[in-house]
Amino acid sequence: MDRYDALLRTLKLTRRDARAERTIVRLRSGVTVGGETLAICAGPCAVESAEQLDATAAAVAAAGANVLRGGAFKPRTSPYAFQGLGECGLEMLRASADRHGLAVVTEVLDPRDVAVVARYADMLQIGARNMQNFSLLREAGTAGVPVLLKRGLAATVEEWLLAAEYLLHAGNEHVVLCERGVRSFDPATRNVLDLAVVPLLAELTHLPVLVDPSHGTGVARLVGPMALAAVAAGADGLLVEVHPEPAQAASDGPQSLRPQEFSALMGHLAGIAAAVGRRLPAASLAA
Ligand code: PEP
Ligand code: MN
């Protein structure tokens, strides 16, 4: 651990030895992140319509996911790209999640929207581009709802944990980290999914960790293998993009799984989960 001593000295509230037990984040609807049961968050990159969202929610729930993802406020590289449906999208997320027995995770981009997003969501997502938006972190720290904090595009583990530290320092202990790949020199994949951080974070922090193999690879065919690897490495769950018609998606179609591909992945995941002492959400309901 010598290599990490300097890093650990910068941490107060997120470091592993700040708590006797690992943090288990409980979402409003009874879903837990960090316990024996994996949190499987699935859904479209963006909420595009009530029909698209509901078809996806029905499919991912049937396949055994327990959290619906989908952006109503989208952080797009171009100002001319689809920016999301805003509060209408939040209403759709809540309605579909309730209809299919799922919790909701959705991104908040702006500190001024934290309250409205927190009214609809069970967990606020702070995206990679906003990992060091300190005003947003401070506001989300007082929201009273759990926060999913994605790793920045080029953030070190120390910077990421210090960003999480902002949330805890502001009073929110319900924080989940999400590895989603970092920028590298190689355009062969969209990002480089850093799975070594999963066991590393288990040493450094008591906070749970999800892995997002969709943004981590940018290629739908690579999502399944990296999802399995993430769970094998000890991830507390996954964030996966699923779209009924990826070719028609308003954003991130190339990395989105079709519902039947997601369902097949869940089938393969059961064996990996069992091998590392975890279980899928549907398996826990059945148990
Ligand atoms: C997303 O989850 O759709 C998203 C925009 O993620 P990230 O912030 O990791 O790019
Ligand atoms: Mn996306």
Largest sheet composition: 8 strands, parallel, barrel
Count of folded domains: 1
Distance between the termini: 38 Å
What's the arrangement of strands in the largest beta sheet? Answer: 3-4-5-6-7-8-9-10
- Top-tier CATH class: Alpha Beta
Number of strands: 10
* Bound compounds: phosphoenolpyruvate, manganese (II) ion
Q: How does the overall form come out from the CA principal axes?
A: globular
**Average pLDDT across residues?**
96
Helix content: 25-40%
- What is the fourth-level CATH superfamily? Aldolase class I
SS summary, helix count: 11
> What is the C-alpha radius of gyration, as a whole number of Å?
17 Å
Order of helices and strands: HEEEHEHEHEHEHEHEHHEHH
**Category by helix and strand content:** alpha/beta
Low-confidence stretches are none
Strand content: 5-15%
CATH architectural grouping: Alpha-Beta Barrel
